[in-house]
Write a structure and sequence with these properties.
Number of helices: 8
Helix content: 25-40%
Shape: elongated
CATH architecture of the largest domain: 3-Layer(aba) Sandwich
CATH topology of the largest domain: Rossmann fold
Mean pLDDT: 93
Strand order of the largest sheet: 5-4-1-12-13-14
Radius of gyration: 19 Å
Strand content: 15-25%
Structural class: alpha/beta
Number of domains: 2
Distance between the termini: 9 Å
Length: 265
């Protein structure tokens, strides 16, 4: 197999909750020592890249912020290039708003027009009133665009499965008839942004993920090779859904041995 670079999901691949996947830090050390270019691609919208980098450092993984590609970063780029002039309504955690620091933010005044509505992972902060407010803003004259920081359905926390951003975006999409602009996985453009940052064609990049749809199927649609790990949200029946990864391994710890056995020198 002709591969030159790697994209890796974070939660479920490198760590689960607040614990590193056993062997993952060593596998990443091997990647760096081998000179294999790589980026972390995550749908996490509940914290900025700096916080993600700090979390990785607690596992002994030192990562420059520029090596982390997240939906808020891609969303801010899209807004600067495509959105109308005006304030943006951010339904994202306060910490994540730092990724939008150079953009005007909606004040909360319902009479103020908005240039866009951005949805991220608010977790338990989602309720009817907040979701309905997003709906009201989307129904303003001018039809402001709906940006979704990913369409992941759920993720695995320490206490079990939790809804992610996708279900809330889907509710607004259904109610408004509006097609969201998705700036995270599983969108093709998100993976291509990762490929562009590596300076490699998609077919020479291996995407490693725990989500058979968001990571594996999404990356395949963008032309990347894929590796499914049996950690994080992986469930045994994922491999019976008609989506066939190029490789299936127990965890990221298996990457070095797999690479040596399957990748052309």
């Amino acid at each position: 197999m002709n591969l030159g670079g790697v994209l890796l999901d974070l939660d479920g691949v490198v760590y689960v909750g607040e614990q590193a996947v056993p062997g993952a830090p060593e596998a990443l050390s091997w990647l760096r020592a081998s000179g294999i270019p790589h980026r972390f691609v995550t749908n996490t919208s509940s914290r900025p890249r700096q916080r993600l980098g700090d979390k990785l450092s607690t596992f002994g993984i030192e990562t420059p912020v520029a090596q982390i590609l997240s939906p808020p970063v891609v969303a801010a780029r899209w807004l600067r290039a495509h959105a109308a002039t005006g304030a943006h309504a951010l339904f994202v955690p306060a910490a994540t708003q730092s990724e939008f620091a150079d953009l005007p933010v909606w004040s909360g005044d319902r009479d103020q027009p908005v240039a866009s509505v951005v949805l991220g992972d608010l977790g338990e902060a989602w309720n009817f009133a907040r979701l309905n407010l997003a709906f009201e803003l989307l129904m303003q004259a001018g039809s402001p665009p709906l940006l979704a920081l990913g369409m992941t359905r759920y993720w695995r926390a320490a206490d079990g499965l939790r809804l992610d951003t996708g279900p809330f975006v889907a509710a607004l999409q259904y109610a408004t008839g509006r097609q969201p602009v998705v700036t995270g996985k599983p969108e093709r453009t998100f993976f291509l942004s990762g490929a562009e940052s590596l300076g490699l064609p998609p077919e020479q990049i291996l995407m490693i993920g725990d989500d058979i749809q968001g990571d594996i199927e999404g990356a395949q649609r963008a032309g990347l090779k894929t590796m499914q790990v049996r950690t994080g949200k992986f469930r045994t029946d994922d491999l019976q859904r008609g989506i066939e990864p190029d490789a299936v391994v127990d965890s990221l710890a298996d990457l070095p041995a797999w690479w040596r056995a399957h990748v052309s020198p």
